[in-house]
Amino acid sequence: MASHLVSRMASVHLPNFSEVGRKIVGAALNYKSLAKDLKVQHPQRPIIFLKATSSYIKVGQDIEISKSDIVNYEVELGVIIGKKCKKVTESNALDYIGGYCLALDMTNVSILSEARKASAPWDLGKGFDTACPVSKFIPKEDIKNPDDVKLWLKLNGDIKQNGNTNDMIFSTAHLISFVSQFMTLEPGDLLLTGSPSGVGPVRPNDVLECGLDDLVTMKFSVKPTD
Ligand SMILES: O=C([O-])CC(=O)C(=O)O
Ligand SMILES: [Mg+2]
After folding, report:
1. For residue 26, what are the CA distances in angstroms to 51, 96, 122, 166, 178?
2. Residue 157 C-alpha to ligand 1 middle, in angstroms?
3. Contact present, 109 and 71 (Cβ < 8 Å)
4. Is 14 in the pocket of ligand 1 (CB under 6 A)?
5. Which residues form the Fumarylacetoacetase-like C-terminal domain (predicted)?
6. Which stretch of DSSP H or E encloses residue 160?
7. pLDDT single digits (tens) 31-79
8. Measured from the CB, is residue 194 less than 6 Å from ligand 1?
9. How far is the CA of 75 from the centre of ligand 1 (A)?
10. Which is higher by pLDDT, 156 or 187?
11. Pick from 36, 175, 26, 192: which is nearest to 102 by CA?
């Protein structure tokens, strides 16, 4: 990747990417531990969804939920695409990574479970405002192997998720290659790689804290919209 791009990306915070309309692409049910928790079979191929870029928030902003909705936290490794990526092979896929972030794939379960039952789109369950809290940008060089990083989440100080990306069903390279067969990935796009076991609901005034190896931690509060 051109060095000017690396320095440009390192100097910006992820939410800026939403201003230029970059995509947020999510992988669902990508952890063996979560599939076991939910008693579901491993997917045969990645399950992919899009999240609206207007859902980005950064540290200092709050996650907003309605008191009447069930909204789950999901801690995830975020992969930030560094260069245009179309129909790449799995063996070349990691070359297209520009960096990483820690992300929360906040999910409105009330809406998503209705959508699943009706075979309807997931957009509102995944892409509501404040549904994508992100950390600062993590340079690519800081993560030697994206398929072996620890990630954890505490809810009001209690540990709820404690996983490692080595538990993913489809590797980071596989996800990038798979998505790029259908959809061109572009610099600044964010790929959410799925969440390990322990996902669960938040309530107004809860505090979520999460971390990725010894690279970054972040904290978000949950506020009611009503
Ligand atoms: O919310 C879901 O149902 C699935 C999902 O994003 C994940 O496994 O990370
Ligand atoms: Mg997720």
Report:
1. 7, 17, 11, 18, 12
2. 23
3. yes
4. no
5. 23-222
6. strand 158-164
7. 999 999 999 999 999 999 999 999 999 999 999 999 999 999 999 999 9
8. yes
9. 10
10. 156
11. 192
Task: Count the residues in the chain.
Answer: 226
Instruction: Choose one of 24, 74, 192 to mutate for the ligand 1 pocket test, by most ligand atoms within 8 angstroms of C-beta.
Output: 74
In angstroms, the CA 173 to CA 178 distance is 8
Question: Which domains are present in the chain?
Answer: 15-224 (3.90.850.10)
Q: Please work out whether the CB of residue 161 comes within 6 Å of at least one atom of ligand 1.
A: no
CB of 74 sitting under 6 A from ligand 1: yes
Separation CA 149–CA 75 (nearest Å): 12
Mean pLDDT of the chain: 92
Backbone angles phi, psi at 223, to 5 degrees: -120, 145
Which ligand neighbours the alpha carbon of 126 most closely?
A: 1
Ligand 1 binding pocket includes 55 (Cβ within 6 Å): no
